[in-house]
Amino acid sequence: xxxxxxxxxxxxxxxxxxxxxxxxxxxxxxxxxxxxxxxxxxxxxxxxxxxxxxxxxxxxxxxxxxxxxxxxxxxxxxxxxxxxxxxxxxxxxxxxxxxxxxxxxxxxxxxxxxxxxxxxxxxxxxxxxxxxxxxxxxxxxxxxxxxxxxxxxxxxxxxxxxxxxxxxxxxxxxxxxxxxxxxxxxxxxxxxxxxxxxxxxxxxxxxxxxxxxxxxxxxxxxxxxxxxxxxxxxxxxxxxxxxxxxxxxxxxxxxxxxxxxxxxxxxxxx
Length: 270
What we know:
single chain; 270 residues; alpha+beta; ten-stranded mixed β-sheet; 7 helices
């Protein structure tokens, strides 16, 4: 699990600036190169026939969803946090993580968050504001999620410009859910459509779980197409291989302009 998150961290403005002179794989940015190099347990690429191209006017307007949505991490609880049984991410950590991704070293950009992030109190999660050198501001909304297969690990997610929709926000809620993150396509993928059909999304979600060593869950359906350009939740269902029970899952695309897509899959915690 942690390797997927660490690969995402290579996509910071500083990292991009340092790598501009490097040749890029066609159709993939730094996040695609870093994440796609991590082979899932299945080692398979979701089938291209599971993807569909959007028709004109399909889906909600981009203004209804965050401009960008991305995770940072992984983080591990401190001994003090583990002893207290509570997870409150301090302001300094939030500001550091956002600055790592969205500011250039030596720039006049500054990040300020409205408060710490109590993981178990989603209604009280803060926002952060990035102020650029010319005084322009951008707001980022904070979410803290438990990592699948790692009860002591957590990821910090930022949605830029707007909050996530309520279903997506609930899917990231600590304790109730755990998340896995993985690239949608591999380096060798010859086709990278921007919209996955329900069948293609189910195959991709299974690949995300496999890539994070999440075992015992079979994704059996996704309720609709997944637009990889929009951080909008799409619900689905998986079957627990041990109990045979069906459990709800939620898919949320990671959206970073100019980067190859990744996918968050939220599953019940426990």
